[in-house]
Write a structure and sequence with these properties.
This protein has about 290 residues and is mostly helical. About 80% of the residues lie in helices and about 0% in strands. The protein contains twelve helices and no strands.
């Protein structure tokens, strides 16, 4: 029950990132939003972890894994994602998360030598079918460039590799320290690209910008990522199934805040997605 609540809350928070980013892009350029988010989020978690909770600093042999994870999970994934979401709808941005469970399952089976059970395959495939049904009218009605789609897929691949890399390591640090340092290191690695690709005179640091950044920092970078790392400690493939729920919340947020459509296709797709999640999670529990 604890893992179910954690997974559901993770999906609700993580799905909101597309809409929050889309809103922020009305005031500032992509990498300005990304770097502001990363430095604020990393600083908050590290101050809490090292000054409030008095957790130790990473040891010499822990810095490289933190840097690699930050490159995959922050610099490449989130850096590319915020660029892609400028050219695709928030619904499609949330939908892209649903391509990850099958990729994570395949990478886990090769990298971590974890066999994928039959019911997990059924759950994964049902989820993909459901997402395909839900997105069909959105693809017809929403703006999306070919470049934006390719950048989005590239960002998702980096996310999957980062997820499996994280699960392959025997981390000795608390989750809040891992999360804080990987976000901060990833943000530092993104800085050269930010200065090269951003015209800062076009940014407007208004209420909309800071509201977007605040949401991306606290509920998403702090809250959702903490929950994600917690879920990964249990089972990589099981955790990845919660990504199937993200597009459902994403469609709801996009409808309420950006007026993107919810159709019969969305409802039918939701049934497939929830059914796939139930089958995949039930198998994991019984194993």
């Amino acid at each position: 029950m604890k893992n179910t609540l954690a997974g559901l809350l993770f999906a609700m928070l993580w799905a909101s990132a597309s809409v929050a980013t889309k809103i922020g892009l009305q005031s500032a350029q992509p990498l300005s939003i990304a770097n502001t988010r990363f430095f604020l989020g990393g600083a908050i978690m590290l101050l809490f972890g090292h000054l409030v909770r008095r957790y130790r600093l990473p040891s010499a042999n822990e810095w490289l894994p933190l840097l690699i994870y930050g490159l995959l999970n922050v610099t490449i994934y989130l850096g590319a994602f915020v660029f892609a979401i400028k050219e695709v709808s928030a619904g499609i941005g949330s939908l892209s998360l649903a391509t990850n469970p099958l990729t994570i399952a395949i990478l886990s089976s090769v990298w971590l030598k974890r066999p994928i059970k039959r019911n997990e395959w059924i759950g994964l495939l049902l989820g993909l079918v459901g997402i395909g049904i839900a997105v069909y009218p959105l693809l017809l009605q929403s703006y999306a460039s070919v470049r934006g789609i390719f950048i989005l897929l590239f960002s998702m691949l980096s996310y999957c590799v980062g997820t499996v890399y994280y699960s392959s390591r025997s981390w000795q640090l608390p989750i809040v320290v891992i999360n804080g340092w990987q976000i901060l290191l990833g943000g530092i690695c993104l800085l050269p690209f930010t200065f090269l690709m951003t015209n800062f005179s076009e940014n407007h640091y208004d209420l909309r910008f800071w509201a977007s950044v605040a949401w991306l920092v606290l509920p998403v970078s702090v809250g959702a990522v903490q929950l994600w790392l917690y879920l990964l400690k249990t089972d990589t493939v099981k955790a990845s199934l919660w990504l199937y729920i993200c597009p459902i919340f994403g469609f709801l947020y996009a409808k309420c805040l950006l007026n993107e459509p919810i159709t019969l296709y969305t409802l039918v797709g939701t049934v497939f997605v929830v059914g796939g999640l139930y089958i995949g999670q039930r198998k994991n529990k019984n194993s």
